[in-house]
Design goal:
This is PLP-dependent aminotransferase family protein. It contains 17 helices and 13 strands. The chain has 478 residues and is of the alpha/beta class. The protein is 42% helix and 12% strand. α11 links the parallel β7 and β8. The strands form 4 sheets. A 7-stranded mixed sheet has the order 4-10-9-8-7-5-6, with helices on both faces. A two-stranded antiparallel sheet has the order 1-2.
C-alpha cells in the first residue's frame, strides 16, 4: 500500500536542493544523497512525498542517470526512500530510521532546539495551579484576553523593566509563535513585505511566508544592527511591518544598545512602519550588565511586543503574550476568534504562580544557562579551534563562524555521529549563512561536552583531515 502524499516535480526539487554539489563530479552521488537527506530531516520533503522519476531528475538537476540511481540506491538502503516497480519512489521515513537523527537511538544528542528543560519550580507552580482550578470550573473557560491575574503579572514585569504597562495592554496567547501568527493576520496581507533580520529565527520567517507575506532581509553587522541599512530598506521595499529580536538575537546572541534602539525606532516611526519585537529570550541575561529599556519605550504605540515563557520556564507550557496599545489589542481580539478562542486555563494559572515572585526562578535559569554556556565555549575552543565566535552575553546558543561554507555538510555528516543540528542556511531568507552554525547550550554540561567532542570529529571529517566518517562514537549519553 502506498503512503498518502503529494508529488514534487523535478524543477521544484532542484530549487529546494539549491547548490548541492560540494566535492566535484566524483562525489556527485554522495553530495546528492546528503542534500536529499537534509531536505527530509528539515521537513521540506515530508514522509509520503512522491519523487520525480529518474529521467525527470536527470533533466532537472542536471546530472547523469548513474548519479541519480546511486543516490536513490543509497537512500533506499538507509530506509529514507522506498520504491516499487510501476509506482515510482517516495519518502518512506525520517532520516535516521536506519541511521540516527530521530527515533529510539539513545546516543542521539539533539542540538536542533535551543530550548531548556523545566526547572523544579514548575512542579510546585503546578500544585498551586491545581488548587486554584476548582474556582474556574464553574465558568465556561473561554477568555480571549487571558486570565486577569496573569495579564496583571505580565504587565507588572514590563513596568519593573521601565515600561509602564496595564493589564489591558496584554493578550495571553498559546506561545510566542501563536502571538506572531495573530499579529501577522492583523497587519499583513498577500504580497506585503516584512522587514526581518538576516539571520533570523526560522519559524518566524516561515510564519511570514505562511501568511503570504514576503520577508525582506536586512543583514546584521558583526556587532549589531545596521540602522542605515534599515533606513534604505524602508525606502526601497515599502514594508508593511518590521520584525526584530533586539534582546539576545536568535541566532547571533547579540543585544541591541539603547542608542541603536532609539535610532532604529526613530527611523521606523518616520516611515510609519509598525514594529514587532520578539522578547522570547529577554530574561536570559548572563553577563550581569544593565539591561536597556524595552524597545517599546522608544517606539511607543507603534511597537507590538511578543513574549513567552518557553525559554525562561518551559516550552511545554505553551504560554506567550502580546503587549500593545489599547487600539491594537482591540483589533487583535476582533480577529482572534477565527484562529482560536483562548489559551488553556491551567497553564495560565501555572505561569501566574511562577510570576508571583519571578526573580528566584529566573536567577536559577540564568545560573544554569551561564554554566552551560561556559562549558560550550570551552569545548568549542578545544574541539573546534578553527571556528570563531563571540561569547554571547545572553540567550541560549553560540553562533559559530566555520572555516568554510560547510554548514550543510556538517549537519548531514553529524547525523552519522548521533548529532542533530540545524545548518546555517535555515536562518537565512534566501539562502546564505553556509559558513555559520548555531550550537545551543540547553543540555547538561556532560552531554554538551560529549556533543561538542563529536562535533569536532564531524568538523575534521568534513575538512578531510583524516578522521573516518564511521568513527565509533556510540557512547550512551545520559
Amino acid at each position: 500500500m502506498l503512503p498518502p502524499g503529494g508529488r514534487i516535480s523535478g524543477a521544484r526539487l532542484a530549487r529546494l536542493l539549491g547548490s548541492w554539489r560540494r566535492g566535484g563530479a566524483r562525489q556527485g552521488s554522495a553530495d546528492l544523497t546528503a542534500a536529499l537527506k537534509l531536505l527530509v530531516a528539515d521537513g521540506r520533503l515530508p514522509v509520503g512525498t512522491r519523487l520525480p522519476s529518474e529521467r525527470e531528475l536527470t533533466d532537472a538537476l542536471p546530472v547523469s542517470r548513474t548519479t541519480i540511481t546511486a543516490a536513490l540506491d543509497q537512500l533506499r538502503a538507509e530506509g529514507v526512500v522506498e520504491s516499487r516497480r510501476g509506482a515510482g519512489s517516495w519518502i518512506n521515513g525520517p532520516v535516521g530510521a536506519g541511521g540516527g537523527i530521530t527515533g529510539g537511538d539513545d546516543t542521539l544528542i539533539d542540538l536542533s532546539r535551543a530550548a531548556p528543560p523545566a526547572l523544579p519550580s514548575l512542579r510546585m507552580a503546578m500544585d498551586v495551579a491545581l488548587g486554584q482550578m476548582p474556582e474556574h470550573l464553574a465558568s465556561h473557560g473561554y477568555d480571549e484576553r487571558g486570565l486577569p491575574v496573569l495579564r496583571q503579572r505580565i504587565a507588572d514585569r514590563y513596568t519593573s523593566r521601565g515600561l509602564p504597562t496595564s493589564a489591558d495592554q496584554i493578550v495571553v496567547t498559546s506561545g510566542a509563535q501563536h502571538a506572531w501568527a495573530l499579529v501577522l493576520r492583523l497587519f499583513v496581507g498577500p504580497g506585503d513585505r516584512v522587514l526581518v533580520e538576516q539571520p533570523s529565527y526560522p519559524n518566524a520567517l516561515e510564519a511570514v511566508r505562511a501568511s503570504f507575506g514576503m520577508p525582506v532581509p536586512v543583514p546584521m553587522l558583526a556587532d549589531g544592527w545596521d540602522v542605515d541599512g534599515y533606513e534604505a530598506a524602508l525606502r526601497q521595499a515599502g514594508p508593511r511591518l518590521a520584525y526584530l529580536i533586539p534582546d539576545f538575537q536568535n541566532p547571533t546572541g547579540l543585544r541591541m544598545s539603547s542608542e541603536s534602539r532609539e535610532a532604529l525606532a526613530g527611523v521606523l516611526r518616520k516611515a510609519r512602519t509598525p514594529l514587532v519585537v520578539d522578547e522570547t529570550l529577554v530574561e536570559l541575561a548572563l553577563d550581569g550588565s544593565e539591561a536597556p529599556l524595552p524597545m517599546a519605550a522608544f517606539g511607543g504605540d507603534s511597537v507590538v511586543t511578543l513574549g513567552s515563557a518557553s525559554k525562561s520556564h518551559w516550552g511545554g507550557l505553551r504560554i506567550g503574550w502580546i503587549r500593545a496599545s489599547a487600539d491594537i489589542v482591540h483589533r487583535l481580539l476582533s480577529t482572534r476568534a477565527a484562529i482560536d478562542l483562548g489559551t488553556p486555563v491551567f497553564e495560565q494559572l501555572v505561569l501566574a504562580a511562577l510570576l508571583e515572585n519571578p526573580e528566584p526562578v529566573l536567577r536559577q535559569r540564568c545560573a544554569e544557562a551561564l554554566e552551560q554556556r561556559d562549558v560550550t565555549v570551552a569545548a568549542l575552543r578545544e574541539h573546534c579551534p578553527q571556528w570563531s565566535f563571540v561569547v554571547p552575553a545572553g540567550g541560549l546558543g553560540v553562533w559559530c563562524t566555520l572555516d568554510g561554507p560547510v554548514s550543510t555538510r556538517i549537519a548531514v555528516v553529524a547525523q552519522n555521529h548521533g548529532l542533530r543540528l540545524v545548518p546555517g542556511p535555515r536562518f537565512a531568507v534566501h539562502g546564505g549563512c553556509e559558513q555559520m552554525l548555531r550550537v545551543p547550550y540547553t543540555q547538561s554540561p556532560e552531554v554538551l561536552r560529549e556533543a561538542i567532542g563529536r562535533l569536532g570529529v564531524v568538523a575534521a571529517t568534513v575538512a578531510g583531515t583524516g578522521f573516518p566518517a564511521d568513527a565509533d562514537l556510540s557512547v550512551p549519553v545520559a
